[in-house]
Amino acid sequence: MALYKIADFDPDYKDTFQGNDVKGMGVYVEGTDEKIGTVSDVLVDDNGHFRYLVVDLGFWIFGKKVLLPVGRSRIDYNVDRVYAIGMTREQAENLPEYDERQTLDYDYEERVRGTYRTPGSYTPAAVDTSTPLDTATPLEASAPAATAGYQPTPGTNYPTYDRNTYNYEQEPSLFNMNDQDHQTLRLYEERLIANKRRQKAGEVTVGKHIETETARVAVPVEKERVVVERVTPADAGRSVAPGEANFREGEVARMEIYEETADVHKEAFVREEVRVKKVVDQDTVQAQDTIRREELDVNAPGLPVDER
Questions:
Q1: Is the overall model pTM greater than 0.85, yes or no?
Q2: What are the angstrom distances between the C-alpha of 291 and each of 96, 188, 190, 294?
Q3: Exposure winner among 25, 117, 177, 180, fewest CB in 10 A?
Q4: Are 119 and 80 in contact, with CB atoms under 8 Å apart?
Q5: Element (H, E) at 14
Q6: pLDDT tens-digit profile of 239-253?
Q7: Is residue 230 exposed (0-12), middle (13-18) or buried (19+ Cβ within 10 Å)?
């Protein structure tokens, strides 16, 4: 029968209980309005059922916390109070101290339950609360709670419990919520919760490919050629002096001839630059649905009803 702090069992418990958080409520003696302490936490079982309220007695005993079975409480959400049924402030003082750093085992719970069982069946004896819970002396399987520090009143029937088979349903007076003391009617209303979910709409691929074409270019070139021109000099037919004429065989005039050829080659250059980026476009999506709301109907013909 493991017990958990309510926030450890359900981190969203405040939403589950629609904001009715018992933590922080003052604890008072039923009928006298004498304050005992403040609810500092709630312990629940594996199924999430309330089993104990952790009451901080710091209002008058600094630093001490005790456990109040939920069946011995009356929660009044209208005034944010918890009333302890059948307990006085002095009795709360004699409860075993709750230490959240220690193991909450069967033996410790029996010491606690022993103070709450049917009045007259038990009288509290001295309890050594200095013993750590995880090192408390173990009880035998069928040993009564008296071995945990509480003695039965002579002449009464003393119930026994087996540590191996014990469950909270065996003691409804301690662990059942009293419907008569906790009549709360909750009115529920639906509301639309709008969330966004990011999903992939597609993929854009930007790449390169090569295209080929035939390019033409015109290159003007020059070529040299030799022109042999024969002309008749103005003194043609004139006689030359003896020895002036120089007859030489094999005389040759040389002239180099050049021409240009086209030198065409290819070179690569940057034509343009492509930048790829994303931009976010804002849009508003309209959605509607039918929601329900509960309204209170009070049917009390001719009867006085004080609706607050």
A1: no
A2: 50, 11, 5, 10
A3: 180
A4: no
A5: helix 13-16
A6: 888 878 778 788 888
A7: exposed
